[in-house]
UniProtKB/TrEMBL annotation, chain A:
<dbReference type="InterPro" id="IPR000322">
    <property type="entry name" value="Glyco_hydro_31_TIM"/>
</dbReference>
<dbReference type="GO" id="GO:0005975">
    <property type="term" value="P:carbohydrate metabolic process"/>
</dbReference>
<keyword id="KW-0326">Glycosidase</keyword>
<dbReference type="Pfam" id="PF01055">
    <property type="entry name" value="Glyco_hydro_31_2nd"/>
</dbReference>
<dbReference type="Pfam" id="PF21365">
    <property type="entry name" value="Glyco_hydro_31_3rd"/>
</dbReference>
<feature type="domain" description="Glycoside hydrolase family 31 TIM barrel">
    <location>
        <begin position="237"/>
        <end position="563"/>
    </location>
</feature>
<feature type="domain" description="Glycosyl hydrolase family 31 C-terminal">
    <location>
        <begin position="571"/>
        <end position="659"/>
    </location>
</feature>
<dbReference type="GO" id="GO:0106407">
    <property type="term" value="F:Glc2Man9GlcNAc2 oligosaccharide glucosidase activity"/>
</dbReference>
<dbReference type="InterPro" id="IPR013780">
    <property type="entry name" value="Glyco_hydro_b"/>
</dbReference>
TrEMBL record, chain B:
<dbReference type="GO" id="GO:0001889">
    <property type="term" value="P:liver development"/>
</dbReference>
<feature type="signal peptide">
    <location>
        <begin position="1"/>
        <end position="20"/>
    </location>
</feature>
<dbReference type="InterPro" id="IPR018247">
    <property type="entry name" value="EF_Hand_1_Ca_BS"/>
</dbReference>
<dbReference type="InterPro" id="IPR036607">
    <property type="entry name" value="PRKCSH"/>
</dbReference>
<dbReference type="GO" id="GO:0006491">
    <property type="term" value="P:N-glycan processing"/>
</dbReference>
<protein>
    <recommendedName>
        <fullName>Glucosidase 2 subunit beta</fullName>
    </recommendedName>
</protein>
<keyword id="KW-0732">Signal</keyword>
<dbReference type="Pfam" id="PF12999">
    <property type="entry name" value="PRKCSH-like"/>
</dbReference>
<keyword id="KW-0479">Metal-binding</keyword>
Length: 793, 435
């Protein structure tokens, strides 16, 4: 063992020795009568709380540590197809098992195109973590994909815990369970007969190299685990507000005229968007940081055109660098010795989009600093402040490498790629994000999308689920894929709307927009070989459906922004499985066709072809949920059948919550900056509700550095709705005001009085819809940043 | 900021030509045509009739009407629209969401009255530019339309020529067919008696042979037959007979085929040509009718005449022509009503981007777009196809090509044939300066 960290508390506490004998020691973990029992023969660790075993390490004795060897002439070489792995240190591996008594549900270890609740791997392949550029991946499969986060969460009605296996080498995870094979009848029989066997999940981690370095997060609540994990790897980067809006991408927008025409198309069809993206064809021969001189002769004119409409652009910068002595970037990397080296010591070269390419060693801090400096406005010619970056292919993808990636014996300094493979993409995104910060003198928040990632990648931007396909199964799998990422820190996740490969049916495209509008990263993307699919190409009816989905996203941006502020602040996921908020409700444990945004919105998008209806589960006994479109109230803890049409996006607001929206949807989020808020107050059965309002400039670090933000608590109790400052040390001025207050589940008042800090009182007009019990207060008009109270009498 | 901007009184100088200023007042964002619905200080009924509100609720930055009609000058209603007068240019409606969004949409800057955006009034400049370009367009249209008339005229003549040629060809074909038919009839009517005569002749010949045989039977039977049956096939053929001069009627020492026929048919008066030359003549006519070149010409003429070359056949002149455009990488070639292709400039084979499909413009201007499809297949994709957009121009030329979607090409093509009858310039300009 190199180290083991038990993160039970935010504040570190020293372990204290409770008892000791010749075979081991018992240590106190501080609070909650938690103890760590270390036994020597056979070696095992048990973490106890009271008389309960929470977790045991090496209880199955699968601890293994295959040491490094001195190379004996070619003895350990391995060949795979035409590739050879020289294995200069011989074969190596490490392994350890974890037993989780009382646990039937484990989650996490993304990235896999699989269900939210992890399956047992008995009789099949383990879940594999090895960053790969997978061509047309299959769903419901434990195969490795583009990113790897070796973090697993366990959950039962009693406790949530986490295991962080800090290792960036190729890793495999086996899961077995003593109840997995049992039928419902068998389980019931156990229960009735009082069978002594408690459910247990056993997990085994195997990595190809490195050391055993494990962090155990003891929870006990999901929120605790998120905080504990955030204390280890950091929290979600707080994105610019506009990055949470809609992104229009395609491989490729062909030239400046094409960009202008698509931009105009959005205005002509009154569909908002914030970012238009340029894929690899915009470059001069796939030389990143350059522009095709014929197709994009005046990039600044193009960017200025977008800026004039308060819109932005993302250009792609991949980490493979064309080997070309007339290419400045290549020459500098080569002359500085920044390329990854092959086992023979020369620059490692492989094939990618530009042809023969080198791969900068992003694990080298000097290389990263140099790379970051390339994003300076005077280095990246044609770039402007409204241009951001996309790092694709950062697994890294090597077309002619083993499994389309780098040879394991390639060298990053003294480290083999074998040792840190899964970290490469993380460092690419990091260096790029740092570059975007630096170019603005540290003022502006960056936005960088990456395909490959590792634990901690959340600190540098967004990720997406890679090259999916225009198929209904891929739409469905986007939910568990992003939920799994959210559980392990990466909140800013999305899937290509419409599907990357192949061409979606119109129905699938519409449903994908409706689903994507309620997922964190909302970007449409399409393969080069597919027909065009801008939202207005499918007839006026479908244009209207897509427009409506995008508009719902824009109206909800204040809530999205607030959720990301919290993700940044405390590591809580934006998009959550239901069990995170209803940890004791076993019905929610394997649910992955619906999800929560924060605590207060429940989304069950339509992901079935030809759907006429669906059944959504509304959790919380004694709670109520309000349909956000009709305001109809439904009781909690029920399976609710909802008839649907092609325009339906079933979304519910939790009774007891307050959600701010901006009803004036404009052509980009920046255009909505000063617009007023509408507050949706959904009352609980006890006629209580609370929520928040977070406002800042939307794009700089001033919220952090200079405490320039507004954070208010909104609460409704005793027939009064109030706004109070949650951050007294902060300062920010907004032009936004409160336009309208909609109270769901209300009764009709005789009068509504607004009280402002200057002591003034004024009567508000209101409208009451008795059929739905909706009270609408007309135009309070008060600034969103001040204290106020509305009293209903 | 509660934006309690209630009403903007708009002062507009009307009737610019006369110099007389008439002041009108109406809420911000309301077009002149709707002014009567917004009567000052009287309750306002939403234009959809859904509710009635006090006049001070108009443009008070809160949406009261479901149809957005109470907020013509603010962004409060999601479905509202704002009217810019754009004096000097063209009036326009913009979605309410573009009011005070920091982006100048109306050239008269009236949409950005409270956003801090610095907009310049560009209406006059835009009006001037538009008038200029309209003027240029009008000239092009005018000239183009004249050319079009010429094209129509030529097409008509060409069409008539072709029809004439076809009729002629068809006529001569018909004539030939008739001749062939006549010959066939003649041949057949000639052949009938011939057949009869031949049979008769054969019969008598057999009888004669029988007689001879009978006569010489006993003494020379075997010999005689062997003598006649030169090739010893067991039959006695004409040729075999010919070789027997004892049968020569004119005693010239040879027995010709004609003689055998004449001899056979001397009783028939219908015979006027030797059989052999008639057969030759017949096949000559038949070959004329079946000549591939002849068929090809006819078929092409029929095809060309059958093409939809536009309402007045104004596109007929494009037929069997080709137009090229050279880009940095490729030479594109459009052969209207035939095919579109692309050839790399620096070597490589030509790619078929589509074969003539059909006119594919929208209902009201079908002849503004051509569609070529079923071109060469794309890897993992559809067959290549090309959409050709036609615009009015004096010249017939391919002005641009692009591939907006993989294997779907777009070509811009100017031709006088799409030029519409120009409205008089005054009309055009007048239509754009209304207040």
């Amino acid at each position: 063992f190199n180290s083991m960290c038990v993160c039970a508390l935010r504040r570190q506490r020293a372990l204290s020795l409770l008892s000791q004998d010749e075979n081991g020691v018992v240590l106190s973990l501080g609070a909650d009568s938690q103890r760590l029992i270390v036994s020597a023969k056979p070696f095992r660790l048990d973490i106890m709380e009271g008389r309960e075993v929470l977790l045991s390490l090496n209880s199955r004795g699968l601890l293994a540590f295959e040491h490094l060897r001195i190379l004996e002439d070619g003895m350990w070489e391995e060949t795979f197809k035409s590739h050879t792995d020289s294995k200069p240190n011989g074969p190596s591996s490490i392994s350890l098992d974890f037993s989780l008594p009382g646990v039937e549900n484990v989650y996490g270890i993304p990235e896999h195109a699989d269900s939210l609740k992890l399956k047992t791997t008995d009789g099949g392949d383990p879940y594999r973590l090895f960053n790969l550029d997978v061509f047309q991946y299959e769903v419901f499969n434990p195969m490795a994909l583009y990113g790897a986060i070796p973090v697993m969460l366990s959950h039962s009605a009693q406790r949530t815990m986490g295991i962080f296996w800090l290792n960036a080498a190729e890793t495999w995870v086996d899961i077995s369970s003593n109840t997995a094979g049992k039928t419902v009848f068998g389980q019931m029989l156990d229960y009735v007969q009082g069978s002594s066997e408690t459910p247990q999940t056993d997990v085994r981690w195997i990595s190809e190299s490195g050391i055993i370095d494990v962090f155990i997060m003891l929870g006990p609540t999901p929120t605790d685990v998120f905080s504990q994990y955030a204390s280890l790897t950091g929290t979600q980067a707080f994105p610019p507000l506009s990055a949470l809006a809609y992104h229009q991408c395609r491989w490729n927008y062909n030239d400046q005229e094409d960009v202008a025409a698509v931009d105009q198309g959005f205005d002509d069809h009154d569909i908002p968007y914030d970012f238009i993206w340029l894929d690899i064809e915009h470059t001069d021969g796939k030389r990143y940081f350059t522009w095709d001189p014929h197709k994009f002769p005046q990039p600044k004119d193009m960017l200025q055109g977008l800026l004039d409409k308060r819109r932005k652009m993302v250009t792609i910068v991949d980490p493979h660098i064309k080997v070309d002595s007339s290419y400045k970037i290549h020459n500098e990397i080569r002359s500085k010795g920044f390329y990854v080296k092959s086992k023979d010591g020369g620059d490692y070269e492989g094939w990618c989009w530009p042809g023969n390419s080198g791969y900068p060693d992003f694990t080298n801090p000097e290389m990263r600093a140099w790379w970051a400096s390339m994003f300076a406005y005077d280095q990246y010619e044609g770039s402007m402040e409204n241009m951001y970056t996309w790092n694709d292919m950062n697994e890294p993808s090597v077309f002619n490498g083993p499994e389309v990636t780098m040879h394991k014996d390639a060298l990053h300094g003294n480290w083999e790629n074998r040792d840190l493979h899964n970290l490469y993409g993380f460092y690419v995104q990091r260096a790029t994000a740092e570059g975007l910060i630096e170019r603005s003198g540290g003022v502006e928040r960056p936005f960088v999308l990456a395909r490959a990632f590792f634990a901690g990648s959340q600190r540098y931007g967004a990720v997406w689920t890679g090259d999916n396909a225009a198929e209904w199964d891929h739409l469905k799998i986007s939910i568990p894929m992003c939920l799994s990422l959210g559980l392990v820190g990466v909140s800013f996740c999305g899937a290509d709307v419409g599907g990357f490969f192949k061409s979606p049916s119109t129905e699938l495209l519409v449903r994908w927009y409706q689903t994507g509008a309620y997922q964190p990263f909302f970007r449409a993307h399409a393969h080069l070989d597919t027909p065009r699919r801008e939202p207005w190409l499918f007839g006026p009816e479908n244009t209207a459906l897509i427009r409506e989905a995008v508009r719902q996203r824009y109206a909800l941006l204040p809530y999205w922004y607030q959720l990301f502020y919290h993700a940044h602040h405390s590591g809580q996921p934006v998009m959550r499985p239901l069990w995170v908020e209803y940890p004791q409700d076993t019905a929610t444990f394997s649910m992955d066709d619906q999800f929560l945004l924060g605590r207060d919105l429940l989304v069950h998008p339509v992901t079935e072809e030809g759907a006429r209806g669906l059944t959504a589960y509304l959790p919380g006994k004694g709670e109520v949920w309000f349909d956000v479109h009709t305001f109809q109230k439904h009781n909690g803890a029920q399976n609710l059948y909802i008839p649907v049409t092609i325009s339906s996006i079933p979304v519910f607001q939790r009774g007891g919550s307050i959600i701010p929206r901006k009803a004036r949807v404009r052509r980009s989020s920046s255009c909505m900056e000063h617009d007023p808020y509408t507050l949706f107050v959904a009352l609980s059965p006890k006629r209580f509700a609370q929520g928040e309002l977070y406002i800042d400039d939307g794009h700089t670090f001033n919220f952090d550095k200079h405490k320039q933000f507004i954070h208010r608590r909104l609460f409704f109790a005793n027939n009064a709705l109030s706004s109070r400052n949650l951050a007294p040390g902060s300062q920010f001025t907004t032009f936004s005001w409160i336009e309208k207050i909609v109270i769901l589940g209300a009764s009709k008042p005789s009068k509504a009085t607004l009280k402002t800090p200057d002591g003034k009182e004024s009567l508000l007009e209101f409208d009451f819809d008795a059929s739905m019990s909706v009270l609408t207060l007309r135009k309070p008009g008060v600034n969103a940043g001040v204290d106020w109270t509305v009293v209903l009498q | 900021m509660s934006c309690a901007l209630l009403l903007l009184l708009m002062s507009l100088a009307l009737a610019m030509g006369t110099g007389a200023a008439v002041e009108i007042q109406r809420p911000r964002g309301v077009p002149l045509s709707s002014e009567q619905f917004y009567e000052e200080n009287k309750p306002f009924t939403c234009l959809d009739g859904s509710s009635t509100i006090p006049f001070d609720r108009i443009n008070d930055d809160y949406c009261d009407c479901r149809d957005g009609s109470d907020e013509p000058g603010t962004a409060a209603c999601p479905n509202g629209s704002f009217h810019c007068t754009n004096a000097g240019f063209r009036p326009a409606f913009i979605p309410s969401s573009r009011i005070n969004d920091g982006i100048c949409d109306c050239c008269d800057t009236t949409d950005e009255y409270n956003s801090g955006a610095t907009c310049q009034n560009t209406c006059r400049e835009m009006g001037r530019k538009e008038r200029e370009s309209l003027q240029i367009m009008a000239e092009i249209t005018k000239e183009g339309f004249m050319l079009k008339q010429q094209l129509i005229h030529e097409a008509k003549r060409g069409q008539e020529d072709k029809q004439g040629k076809l009729t002629e060809l068809q006529g001569s074909k018909k004539g030939l067919e008739e001749k062939v038919e006549a010959l066939r009839t003649v041949k057949e009517t000639a052949e009938d008696p011939e057949k009869e005569a031949k049979e008769r002749h054969l019969k008598s010949w057999e009888e004669q042979k029988e007689l001879i045989r009978m006569e010489k039977d006993k003494t020379r039977m075997a010999e005689a037959f062997l003598e006649l049956d030169d090739d010893a096939d067991g039959y006695v053929s004409v040729a075999e007979l010919q070789s027997h001069l004892e049968l020569d009627p004119d005693s010239d020492g040879s027995l010709t085929e004609t003689e055998t026929q004449v001899r056979c048919l001397s009783s028939s008066s219908t015979l006027f040509l030797p059989l052999k030359s008639r057969e030759e003549f017949l096949s000559h006519y038949q070959s004329l009718i079946c000549d591939p070149e002849f068929i090809w010409i006819c078929r092409n003429l029929e095809k060309e005449i059958g093409f939809d070359f536009g309402p007045s056949a104004e596109f007929a002149y494009l037929y069997s022509q080709c137009y090229e455009l050279s880009t940095s990488e490729y030479i594109y070639r459009l052969c209207p009503f035939n095919r579109v292709s692309q050839k790399p400039k620096f070597g490589g084979s030509e790619t078929n981007l589509g074969l003539w499909g059909q006119w594919a413009g929208p209902e009201d201007s079908l002849y503004s777009v051509m569609k070529y499809d079923h071109g060469q297949g794309c890897w993992q994709g559809p067959n290549r196809s090309t959409t050709v957009k036609l615009t009015c121009g004096k010249e017939t030329v391919v002005t641009s090509t692009s591939e907006p979607s993989r294997c779907e090409y777009l070509m811009e093509f100017t031709t006088p044939a799409v030029c519409q009858e120009p409205a008089s310039l005054d009309e055009v300009l007048q239509g754009h300066t209304e207040l």
